[in-house]
Amino acid sequence: MEFEALRSTLHRWYQQHKRSLPWRENVEPYAIWLSEIILQQTRVAQGLPYYERFLDRFPKIEQLADAPQEEVLKLWEGLGYYSRARNMQAAAQMVRDEFQGEFPSNYEDIKSLKGVGDYTAAAIASFAFDLPHAVLDGNVFRVLSRLTADETPINTGQGKKRFQRYADQFLDPEKPALHNQALMEFGALQCVPRNPNCLDCPLKSACLAYKLDKVEDLPQKKRKVYDKQRYLNYFHLLQEDKVLVEKREAGIWHGLYQFPLIETEGPVSWPELLEHLDEVHQQELINLKARKISLARHKLSHQSLHINVWYLNLSEPFTNAIFPESERRLEKELANLAFPRPLRKYLDENQLTLPLD
Ligand code: SF4
After folding, report:
1. 173 Cβ partners below 8 Å, 6+ apart?
2. Is the Cα torsion angle 174, 155, 113, 27 positive or negative in sign?
3. Ligand 1 site-directed mutation target among 203, 216, 217, most atoms within 8 Å of CB
4. DSSP state letters, 95-158
5. Domain containing 238 — which CATH number?
6. Which residues constitute the domain of residue 157?
7. pLDDT at residue 263 tops 60
C-alpha cells in the first residue's frame, strides 16, 4: 500500500464529506472525552442530545466531579451501559483530585482515568492534543480489514494487535487528529458494513477486498458463545399513590432504581413466581390478580433479558416487609429517579393508563 498517496486521498475525501458534529468544533479535552464516552455503543443521533445536556449542566469537569451520583445517572437515563456514567464521574473526580483539575495531556495519564481504554485514550490524545496515537474503533477495523483483505477475526487478541499495527503504520504522524477523524468518518459514511458503494470509492484502487471480491465477508468476527438468558420479574405494587422501589447496589444497573425483583430460571406463572416468597407473603398475594406486562426482550452485550412486570393495585395499605430492601415512594416521585431503560419505557407507556382496578 502506498501510504502517503492513500492518506492524502483519504484526507481530501474527509474535507469534502465530513459531518458537522459539535465535538468536532470543541477541542477541549473534557468535551472530547465526554463525547467519546457517550458515543461508545451509542449512535450519534441518540448520543447528541445527551452530550449537549451534560455540557449544559456540567460545563466544567469539576462540576461533574462534585455532582450527586443520582443526578449524573438521571441525566444518563436511557443510554444504557450505566457503568460508563459511574466511571465517567469517578474519572472526573480523579482529574479533580490527582491532576489538580487539569485534564491530563499525555496518553498514559489519560489512559489511567477510570473507564478509559486504548481507543478512548488514543481518541482524546489525538483529537485534543494532536498526539500521534492511532484509534481503532469498529469503523477503523472495517476499513483496515477491507483495505488489507486480512481475515483475522477482529474480536480476538491477535486481531486487535494486528489491526492496531496496520492503524499505527497508516497513521499520519504530522496530522494525527485529522487522520483519525478521517478514517473513522470514512468507515461511518463510505465503507459501511452492508453494500458500500465501492464503485464510487476513492480508495478502491488500493482496496484488496474490492479486488478479491471479499468486501461483504470482511471484517471477520469469531462467533461468540451464546448469550445468557435471564428472566427478570419486577413487582409493581401500587397502593393509592405509593409504590415500592429499591436502589440497585450492584450489577450493570448499579445505582439505578427498580421495582422489587425476583429473578427466575425461566418463564413463570404468577403462582410459580410467588413460590419464591416466604409463606406469609405468598398467601397474602396468591388470591390477588396481578396483571403481567411483558416487555420487549432487552439485549445487553452478553445477555438477553426477558422482563415481566407484575402489576398489582392493592386496596390495603402495605409495608415494605415483603421486600425489605425496598422503600415506599410516592408514585409521582418516580419521574425524578433514574430507572434502567426498559423500566423507564414501561413507566412512560403505562403509568398514566393503568386503570385502578
Ligand atoms: S472499495 Fe469498498 S470496501 Fe474498499 S475501502 Fe472503498 S468502500 Fe471500502
Report:
1. 132
2. positive
3. 203
4. HHHHSTTPPP-SHHHHHTSTT--HHHHHHHHHHHH--------HHHHHHHHHHHT--S-TTSHH
5. 3.90.79.10
6. 3-217
7. yes
With cell 430460571, the residue in question is 265
Residues 74 and 109 in one domain: yes
Q: Could you give the number of structural domains in the chain?
A: 2
pLDDT bracket for residue 251 (50, 70, 90): confident
**54 and 188 share one domain:** yes
Q: Are residues 84 and 111 in the same domain?
A: yes
| Angstrom distance (rounded) from CA 3 to CA 10 | 10
219 lines ligand 1 (CB under 6 A): no
* CA separation for the pair 149, 164 (Å, rounded): 15
Ligand 1, from 204, 205, 212, 216: best to mutate by most atoms within 8 Å of Cβ? 204
Distance CA 198, CA 203 (A): 9
Closest CA to 322 of 255, 244, 215: 244
Ligand 1 centroid, distance to 200 Cα (angstroms): 9
Does residue 146 have its Cβ closer than 6 Å to ligand 1?
A: yes
Is residue 114 within 8 Å of residue 87, measured between CB atoms? yes
pTM of the model: 0.69
40-56 tens-digit pLDDT: 878 889 999 999 999 99
For cell 405509593, the residue is: 242
Other CB atoms within a 10 A radius of the CB of residue 353 amount to: 6
- Considering the domain architecture, whether residues 127 and 274 belong to the same structural domain is answered as no
Residue 122: phi and psi, rounded to 5, are -65, -40
